[in-house]
Design goal:
One of its GO terms (molecular function) is DNA-binding transcription factor activity. The protein is mainly alpha-helical and about 230 residues long. The chain folds into two domains: about 70 residues, Orthogonal Bundle (Arc Repressor Mutant, subunit A), CATH 1.10.10; about 140 residues, Four Helix Bundle (Hemerythrin (Met), subunit A), CATH 1.20.120.530. Helices cover about 70% and strands about 5% of the residues.
């Protein structure tokens, strides 16, 4: 029994690490995932790695190539636009529910999440991109806080999975829009505390669409490398 628990813990830890490495671009789009090479990096067996990669394949983050193994899912303009549209659909709905049901604890979570994000945006604005992962992690936390009072665990989990795919594109393109994004985040905080979901949806639409246009407009996504 103890060995089974240990194996499960190793598998779960490996899954979280590989998933994070894909989302944050440490494993690049199109990169071959060779089991023999990965087992040393992630300190796990080939059979466990195969289970992990099959799990990530079901999430759309990895592609199984039949007898040829696995590779990190590639990126495309069409996929980014589809992911952004789905994120907007889910987040708008969850946001409206959250604004209606949020209490003082929700407000406190939201203010705290925005404070951390704003501080990291200051670092990014200074030209220091060494904290890009922290920036996007706090971005994720802020948007999760916005919808955290929606009352639906399934909606939160689904939104989180879609947001992670959107986040991967931002990390691949390092799509930081500077003061515009900072202002939109601040506005989202303000209208959330006022429970103004109508205005929040308009800001969110600009926010997401602006992120997509920024990445595509600078050609950053198209120029992203594919490692062998």
């Amino acid at each position: 029994m103890r060995q089974e628990i240990a194996d499960e813990t190793v598998a779960e830890s490996g899954y979280r690490q590989i998933r994070s490495d894909i989302i944050f671009g440490r494993l690049a789009p199109g990169q071959k995932l060779k089991l023999e090479n990965l087992k040393g990096t992630y300190a796990t067996s080939v059979s466990t790695l195969r289970e992990i990669l099959n799990r990530l394949t079901s999430e759309g983050l990895v592609v199984a190539e039949g007898q040829r193994g696995f590779e990190v899912a590639r990126v495309s303009v069409a996929d980014l636009k589809e992911i952004a549209a789905l994120r907007l659909l889910l987040e708008e709905h969850a946001l409206e529910q959250s604004f209606e049901q949020g209490d003082v604890e929700w407000e406190a979570r939201l203010v705290s999440a925005h404070y951390k994000l704003a501080r990291m945006e200051e670092v990014m604005a200074s030209g220091d991109t060494s904290k890009a992962e922290d920036w996007k992690r706090y971005d994720w936390e802020f948007h999760q806080a916005l919808i955290s009072a929606c009352g639906s665990r399934l909606l939160m989990e689904t939104h989180s999975a879609v947001f992670d795919k959107y986040l991967r594109y931002q990390m691949v393109a390092l799509s930081y829009r500077g003061g515009v994004a900072e202002q939109e985040h601040r506005q989202l905080l303000e209208v959330a505390l006022l429970r103004d979901s109508k205005t929040a949806k308009k800001i969110l639409q600009r926010h997401i669409q602006g992120g997509v246009e920024h990445a595509l407009g600078k050609g950053l996504l198209l120029a992203s490398p594919v490692k062998p």
